[in-house]
C-alpha cells in the first residue's frame, strides 16, 4: 500500500510535479526561432537547456539499468555547443527522447525495488535516481520558464 502511494507520488514528481511546471508545459507553443536566444547574456539558450536535460536524464536512466554504461564526460559532453537545433526535426526528436527516456525510467520505478542499491553504483538506488532526475529537470525547466519570460514568450 505505502509503496503504491510512493510510486504514484514519484510519477507525479517525475512528470512535472504538482508545485511546478513540467517540461511539456514549459516548451508548449514555443516559437522555433526563440530556441537559440540567450537574453541578457545568459550562458545558455532554451535549446541548450533542453539538450542538457535529455543528456543528463538519459545518463541517469542508463546508469540505473546497465552496469556497463559509460557516462558522458563532465561537463563537455553534457552541454551542446550549438545554441539552437539545426531544424524542427531535431527539436521534435529531442523532446520525444526526453519523454521516452522518462517513461522508461518510470517503468523502473514501477517494477524495481526502489530501495535496493544499484549493484554497480556506490550507494545509489532507483529512488535516489528518481529524486535526482526530478530535481535536475525541475531546476532546468524553471530556467526555461525564466528565459521565456525574458523573451516575452510565456503565459501572462
From TrEMBL:
A Pfam family matched in the record: DinB_2
Residue intervals of the DinB-like domain: 25-144
Protein name: DinB family protein
Organism, scientific name: Pedobacter endophyticus
Lineage: Bacteria, Pseudomonadati, Bacteroidota, Sphingobacteriia, Sphingobacteriales
